[in-house]
């Protein structure tokens, strides 16, 4: 239980005549503990108001409706706190008039106050820790500015989020990582290249690579005695023809001579 609540309770004990009085006294002290001071009763400010930790005069004159105004010590937050009794339940409503922000919580009085022990501070409250936590999470925190993250959290890298969009850098233009080094539009290049020079395969068998290791063939360099250099555009589909040797092989000595081979007019 928050220190100082007993002193507050004893200062108003003679005016406590209902269980909801004791409950509102507890709520008031929670506001004080978390940096608020009471300005007075009612919806509108009065003359010569000052911030105080004490409950103002006439705060419990109406047992069905309590209305208190608070201001944070830094002067930023203003809260109009109203407690409306509906049978044995208190509906606690808090609003910042400037921000038009409203929050509320419903409290069953019997869960937190022993109505038969209003004259004994040691026995009057129960489930105090639960009530404090509920008021902080549902009422007070709603009007508190965002807390700064601990340094360890600020310095640590963000965890991977598969749904997070990658950061946008408008001044950078990274090059695409194309799988084919010949260009982004070379889809199916392996099938369109008959010699398989792009990605290790083609539609036809390269006669120059039929099981025998030899240097690659560049059709754009021309074919000696067949095509001049540049006759075949680089990368164009080309089926080589004829022998690739620089000289024609001579006749085999075992071949038969054709009829009339010694006829000069043949």
UniProtKB/TrEMBL annotation:
Matching InterPro entries: PI31-like, PI31_Prot_C, PI31_Prot_N
Biased composition (Basic and acidic residues): 146-163
Gene Ontology MF term list: endopeptidase inhibitor activity; proteasome binding
Record carries keyword Phosphoprotein: yes
Protein's GO biological process: proteasome-mediated ubiquitin-dependent protein catabolic process
Function as written in the Swiss-Prot or TrEMBL entry: Plays an important role in control of proteasome function. Inhibits the hydrolysis of protein and peptide substrates by the 20S proteasome. Also inhibits the activation of the proteasome by the proteasome regulatory proteins PA700 and PA28.
Protein's recorded name: Proteasome inhibitor PI31 subunit
UniProt source species: Geotrypetes seraphini
